[in-house]
Structures are given as structure tokens and as C-alpha cells.
């Protein structure tokens, strides 16, 4: 999978992550706007940073996956959202961790869908989502 750049894998991982989030929020039935708002909050850098730290702190990743995370985190990403710029706002670290999670998700989508499901089960658990949404402003 290293034939793709970490940025390309993050691009794919962003879409895969959002699909999982949409699936989680699809039940119970609600208004489409509610699905959209929750999905966008979970896909924000602050929430994804939290979820990546949850995986790392919980020793849920293999050595290879940690290597992919580091590779993704160290890639040269473009613009950081304005809300993350400035002192005390998380900035580059938060954005890079979010991109690293997306890189991992994209990588697993390409090389090991069963493992992707295992990882996404952890990050899409009710407890993980509650913690992530608490950090991600509306």
C-alpha cells in the first residue's frame, strides 16, 4: 500500500471514515440534517485526534499500523483549518493526528478490510463517539 502517498491514503480514509460515521448515525431514524451534523462533528480534526489517541493509548494497533500512523502524521499536508490556528487551539498536532487516522483507515481499506472493521468497531463504539463529540464543537 506504500505505492500510494500517505496523503492519497488519507483522502481515501476520509471517505471511508465518513461512511462508517454515517452508518452509525443512521440508526435510530432521524432527520437528514441531524445525520449530517453528527457526521460532520465526528469527522472534525478534534474528534479524529481523540479517536487516534484512543487507539494508541489502548494498544489497539499493531507495530505496522503504528508505523502507518507515523508515516501519515509526518506527511506534508496543506491548509490547516482556521479554527485550529493560534495559541492553545491544537493546531498542527491535532490536524496531523486526524490526517494520520485517515491515512490508517485508507491503508486498512486497501490492504485488510477485516482489520479495518476491527479498528472501526473500536472508534465507532458508543463510548468513543461520546468522547469524540464532546471535544468537537458544533
From TrEMBL:
It comes from the Eukaryota. It comes from Ostreococcus lucimarinus (strain CCE9901). One of its GO terms (molecular function) is ribonuclease III activity. This is RNase III domain-containing protein. Residues 8-111 form the RNase III domain. InterPro entries: RNase_III_dom (IPR000999), RNase_III_sf (IPR036389). Signal peptide: none annotated. One of its GO terms (biological process) is RNA processing. The lineage of its organism: Eukaryota, Viridiplantae, Chlorophyta, Mamiellophyceae, Mamiellales.
Amino acid at each position: 500500500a506504500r505505492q500510494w502517498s500517505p496523503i492519497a491514503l488519507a483522502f481515501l480514509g476520509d471517505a471511508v471514515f465518513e461512511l462508517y460515521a454515517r452508518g452509525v448515525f443512521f440508526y435510530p431514524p432521524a432527520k437528514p440534517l441531524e445525520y449530517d451534523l453528527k457526521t460532520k462533528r465526528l469527522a472534525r480534526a478534534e474528534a479524529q485526534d481523540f479517536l487516534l489517541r484512543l487507539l494508541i493509548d489502548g494498544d489497539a494497533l499493531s507495530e505496522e499500523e503504528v508505523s502507518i500512523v507515523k508515516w501519515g502524521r509526518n506527511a506534508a499536508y496543506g491548509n490547516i483549518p482556521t479554527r485550529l490556528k493560534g495559541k492553545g487551539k491544537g493546531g498542527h498536532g491535532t490536524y496531523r493526528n486526524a490526517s494520520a487516522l485517515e491515512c490508517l483507515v485508507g491503508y486498512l481499506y486497501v490492504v485488510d478490510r477485516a482489520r479495518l472493521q476491527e479498528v472501526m468497531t473500536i472508534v465507532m463504539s458508543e463510548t468513543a463517539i461520546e468522547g469524540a463529540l464532546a471535544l468537537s464543537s458544533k
